Amino acid sequence: MTQNPSACNITELLAAVIGGNNQIETAQALMSRFDGNIRRLYQAHPAELAKVKGINQTSAVRIKAALNLGLRINLPEDARPVINSPADAAALVQNEMSLLEKESLRVMLLDTKNHVLDIIEVYVGSVNSSQVRIGEVFKAAVARTASAIIVFHNHPSSDPSPSPDDVAVTRAIHQAGNLLDIALLDHVIIGGTRWVSLKERGMGFG
After folding, report:
1. How many helices (H) and strands (E) does the chain have?
2. How far is CA 30 from CA 17, 20, 71, 141, in A?
3. pLDDT band at 76 (very low <50, low <70, confident <90, very high)
4. What single DSSP character describes residue 112?
5. Is 34 exposed, middle or buried (0-12, 13-18, 19+ CB in 10 A)?
6. Each residue of 98-156: pLDDT tens digit?
């Protein structure tokens, strides 16, 4: 780690985070429990990590913190980045949302100059027109007097292709935004390493 961290494999990196005696063996046991899958390790609860011999609660929390810290390396240093395109918006959430096991609907709040005010998770579960309450989508935007929003949700299947429900939800949010004078700039679907802009495809924005 001191000489060249990029040359370390995942087990060696984990060992450095775990520390203490037998850190390599403990890291190997941890990776073995999750079939060598770093994505599953990221998704696991600290209590599940602590079931591995040599991992206590403190170590488990440290591992979770290290994995989340690594995700944020691509976040802009500016606390209020400007969104100029769907790609700009997707870049802020894709690393994290592509790892989620369940669908999550999030709302990016923007000011009049398209600076990001915040990103709020408003729903976890199947994103369909019968379950998503449109009022909840705009709740934070109204409270923060946001001028516009961008909506995101993920497809755990890694296929970002919009479904009929995705289009229906987009249409409902777009229409509600027109009434509230809070523009829906886009609805971006995250699927693994890919994403789809419904605005670019003209779906739900008629």
Report:
1. 8, 5
2. 12, 15, 20, 42
3. low
4. T
5. middle
6. 988 889 999 999 999 999 999 999 988 776 666 789 999 999 999 999 999 999 999 99
> Cα 27 to chain center, whole Å?
26
For residue 181 the two structure tokens come to: 């004078």
Q: Which helix (H) or strand (E) holds 122?
A: strand 116-124
Q: Which two tokens stand for residue 29?
A: 């046991």
Beta bridge mates, 151 = 107, 187
Q: Which amino acid is at 28?
A: Q
Task: Confirm if 54 and 22 have CB atoms less than 8 A apart.
Answer: yes
Please tell me what DSSP assigns to residue 5: G
Q: Cα separation of 119 and 110, whole Å?
A: 9
How far is residue 7's CA from residue 12's CA, in Å, rounded to a whole number? Answer: 9
Mind listing the pLDDT tens digit for each residue in 14-41? 999 998 888 999 999 999 998 888 888 8
Give me 42's structure tokens: 């990221």
**74 in Cβ contact with 81 (< 8 Å):** no
Query: Which of helix, strand or coil describes residue 197?
Result: strand
Cβ atoms within 10 A of the Cβ of 148, count?
19
φ, ψ of residue 13 to 5 degrees: the values are -65, -45
